[in-house]
Input
Amino acid sequence: MRTATAPGKVILLGEHSVVFGETALAAALPFGVTVRAEARASGGVELVAPLAPKGDPRVMEAVRLVARELGVESTRLEVDTDLPVGGGLGSSAAFAVAACRALAPQPVSNDEMNRIAFLAEQLFHGTPSGVDHSVSIHGGIIRFRRGPPVQVERVVPKRPLRLVVAFTGKTRQTSANVAALRKRVEEDPARYRPIVERLGALAEGGASDVETGALAALGGLMDEAHALLASCELSSPELDAIVAAAKGAGALGAKLTGAGGGGSAIALCDDAAPVAAAIAARGFGARIVELAS
Ligand code: PMV
Output
């Protein structure tokens, strides 16, 4: 029996624009997905997964794909997570990475894990940028560009980032939201191209702010990103309510994270407890995390 874990993620800045080749700034969470793999002589691949939304065939397909790529014919996998599935916190990518780590007969390189997890992510999301599994593999905070070639650089925070991560309770399909923005950009490039470029510039600026510890400035960039994403109809009443509650309770900045339209939001805080309490008072799950490296 081999047990492996991989972290979920938040996108601090640059979701959606990253699909168009702009920079994204993403951070691994201190929680994620655990996979326990038991080798078997025969019997194919069996999955015991509270994680798997019942009836979602993609989870089993992804497991089979990972096993096949690693040359594993028979195994029993148990999966566990404290990430909301379909909640914008990278559960599918963390699942693919943890499955690679647990199933591999010998340690796999990051490049090989990247290749396999990307194939699995394509099953879930169609045409993902790759930011989710990249940050799950590398950990920490990364500046990411899809390329080609893919660029992943570590961003070392001068001061720890204190975040409240809040889940709306609503799941959504990343691929549908990505397709909706793509359609908007194609139909009205004069309006939407500059927004995409600005979102990328915010991610670049945010990476510098993380490195210099300019957290108030970073919060301002997050606020602007949320407004821009909302102007592309990627927010939701729940996400806007979380953002408003967070700002009202003193957050330095707050925004949706991931594909939007549901899923999760993040708030950057000096003092996270009152922000988490204000979000929880509106009926949303809120979790305080500190990102220190
Ligand atoms: O699946 P999510 O919610 O983690 O969103 C992924 C981020 C997007 O930029 C919206 C899509 C992508 O492939 O990068």
